[in-house]
Amino acid sequence: MSYADAVYTRGKVFTVDEDFTIATALAVRNGLVHAVGIDAEIETLIGPDTVVTDLDGRTILPGINDSHLHAIAYGLDTPPLSLDVSFPAVRSIADVRELVREAASAAEDGAWIIGTGWDDGYLDECLTEDGRTPTRWDLDEVSPDNPVFLQDFSRHTSWVNSAALALAAVDETTPLPPGSLMPTGEDGLLTGIVMEGAQALVQRVLPALTRERREEALRSAISILQSEGITSFTDPAIGPGGEALAGGAMGAEGLSVYADLARRGELGARVNLLLLPTGMSGSAEDFGKNLADIEVPDTVDPRMFRVLGVKVFADGIPPSKTAWMHEEYVGGGCGSLCVGGDTDERQVYEVTEMVRIGHEAGYQIGVHVTGDRAIDTVAEAIIAA
């Protein structure tokens, strides 16, 4: 008789079948659920080497799936690999300044200060009747010699200081990628807020990520996921288009990092992945060329890791007024698509071509799209494909 490797008894096992059956025991063999039922049935599978756990009334749930998780970026964005500038760790611009001051005082001159998670919807100074947005001058005072790069919770907006802009050679005359913004103040000077594709202007001078750093970030992220009961996820953007997104965390090398961990049985979660041929402001021509050049890993158990499709960035997000809308935002403007092209018509063509190219290559298409006009464009592109 083939015995189970592990048996769990005297608990509540949520099967999530059609009847939402609740069993009391579960058996595992060769890494798979082997049997579910009542204690007496499952106990027949206990052998001399079976590990038996008495649940004592506790509950077993199926693993949770996260359908959209940039895991390497998440690992880099969370302690110990990054400053946590999110609520409730910080509740004001002053709190962020203090965290940056502490990091800068402990860093060597010129070393980057990197953090993630700020949200002006939670910062006290932004919430008053005459509230303001964060500026580079808030950071300059506490970090004059260290460049600072703080991505917001959405990763569609970054807050940088003057040292970072200087290193990137970015000023008020710098041409912007399509669909991106760099707000200026009443004096016409850049405020230090960069949105959408404009973030790449600064991210390109961040320290390059090593393979070891990517693996460290991925392991850190999956460890956090496991502690929350998340056992599978889709990473929706890894490829050459990610070299200047999320500090390079979505870059092409991440594909082989995932695959190597899966081959060694060290991934720790089941992962689907979308390839990212181009980032924001890319063209359909580059999309097709880069997609053809990506080497998709093989000899990996597809139950643990597989490339599922390709990712297209169509527009931005409503809070930044970069999502493409039919009606104007308060204050004017309708946003735009964030792909290459000098006119709306050309950008619609580029998005439509990206969807067609990915579809004809045999991939599912995942699109970042939030504005109603952009959604109409993507729906029509999918219909055309």
Supply the CATH architecture of the largest domain: Alpha-Beta Barrel
Count of individual beta strands: 17
The H-level CATH homologous superfamily of the largest domain, spelled out, is Metal-dependent hydrolases
Mean pLDDT: 94
Q: Tell me the major beta sheet.
A: 5 strands, parallel
Q: Helical element count?
A: 12
Strand order of the largest sheet: 8-14-15-16-17
What is the fold named in CATH at topology level of the largest domain?
Answer: TIM Barrel
Q: Using only CA atoms, what is the Rg?
A: 24 Å
Shape: globular
Q: In what range is the share of β-strand residues? A: 15-25%
- Give the CATH class of the largest domain: Alpha Beta
Order of helices and strands: EEEEEHEEEHEHEHHEEHEHHEHEHEHEH
Walkthrough of the structure:
- This protein is α/β, with parallel strands linked by helices and 385 residues long.
- The protein has three domains: 6-62, Urease, subunit C, domain 1 (Roll), CATH 2.30.40.10; 82-203, Diaminopimelate Epimerase, Chain A, domain 1, CATH 3.10.310.70; 211-384, TIM Barrel (Alpha-Beta Barrel), CATH 3.20.20.140.
- 29% of the residues lie in helices and 20% in strands.
- The chain is built from twelve helices and 17 strands.
- The protein has a five-stranded parallel beta sheet. Strands 9-10-11-12-13 form a five-stranded mixed beta sheet.
- A hairpin with a 7-residue loop joins strand 2 and strand 3.
- Helix 10 (284-293) runs parallel beside helix 11 (344-360) and helix 11 (344-360) packs across helix 12 (372-384).
- The longest helix has 17 residues, at 211-227.
- It is globular, with a radius of gyration of 24 Å.
